[in-house]
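Box S2. Input/output pair 1.
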Amino acid sequence: LSLKLKEEMKDKIGMAYSYNNIGVIYSRQGDFHKALEYHSLSLKLREEMKNKKGMAESYHNIGSVLCRMDSLKEGMKYMELGLELVRELGYKAGVSSNLSAIGGWQLSFSSKAAEDKKVQLIEAAFENGLEALELAKQIGYVDNLRRASRLLSKVYKKQGKFEDALAMKELEIKMRDSIVNEENTKATIRQQMKYEYEKEQILAEQARKDQLRIINEQLSRRDNLQYSAIFIGILILFGGVLMLGFVRIRPKDAEGIAFLSFMILFEFLLVLVDPHIEQYTGGAPAYILIFNAGLAGLMFPLHQFFEGKLKKRVIKTQRKKLRQRMAQYKKDTEKM
């Protein structure tokens, strides 16, 4: 998928890198023909881009695959091309690792060669190993020191120089242990960093939750205070409406005030139950509409009853006052 995207975008650098990696995988799986195919594709792109470091890598990989296919002559030709490019670039680490690899293949093929050829290959491997070791010492690359010392240990053993072979073996082990220790240190540091990061994340999440809890508590207190104030206001409003029955007011005005009072009560109840409606209905408009209609249906008969009682009281009060006025008028007339 990654390669396909790079091909679609015509990303030559990415394509060359992917081809190279696929070639390495095929080589490890033992499918050398497929490995050569992909390493060749990588090399072609790198040659087009004049990427000498990449070309050196591809030459080296092609040479290694050819050597695995028992083609030392062809393999050495490509590996030497890669070595020449890293020398030209002044890349000492690359020169050292390439020399160790070339020397390793030379030593490996020496056991299959005729006696005269065998000596030449061992000597060539020895020279490459010495140069690789010297360059590794110059740049202080532990892994390159390990590779070069391992090669020289094998060469000395082939030559019968067992003390020298032992000395190189000890150096190889020392470098190997150094790499292992370095990797362990890096792993420990990575683990510690991961722990610190996770700890910070947990603390940040806890702080966020605490802050959210405080905000919710503040909002809850605010809402409770407002609900209480509104409720008290509604009680006062309805108390005032009930008092209308004892004051002079037209029935039509009493009807309007009662309607307005129940509208305020209805809106308050909607605000009060809205969070619960949202929770149980999932915010579905149809369900919310049904609930609101149901609440309005319950409020309607209550409103009618309250309004009827209020109008009766207003009319009764008006009639009582009218009778009082008539009685007073009658008394005043009689006195006259």
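Box S3. Input/output pair 2.
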Amino acid sequence: MPQSESVPRDDDSEIVRVSHDIAGRLRTRGVTVSDDESPDDIVRMLEGVEAFERAVQSRGGDLMVDEPPVRGAVQPDDPDFLLPKRADDESASLYLERLEAATRAVRGHRPG
């Protein structure tokens, strides 16, 4: 007997749980995540942030030095290594575009 569209599937609750976990990880990195983000957008943002962080590390950046605390300011070794902040009204897709551009810039970065 096929499942009704109105009956939640077991994997739906797992998707919600994992999405909340990933959103929490993004928030600890200072990325704004709203409660109405799709699970796909949340995963794509995490992947984008991790790609940015890998690019920074590949260029000798230290994430502990270059990333400010969630509620604070920092003087990074290199401002180009700061994770781009997401505006409160910025869509996930626009943030991802900016994040990808920042990642490309870091990959082309020459130490100063």
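Caption for Box S3: The chain has a mean pLDDT of 83. The helical segments are 10-28, 39-58, 63-66, 92-107.
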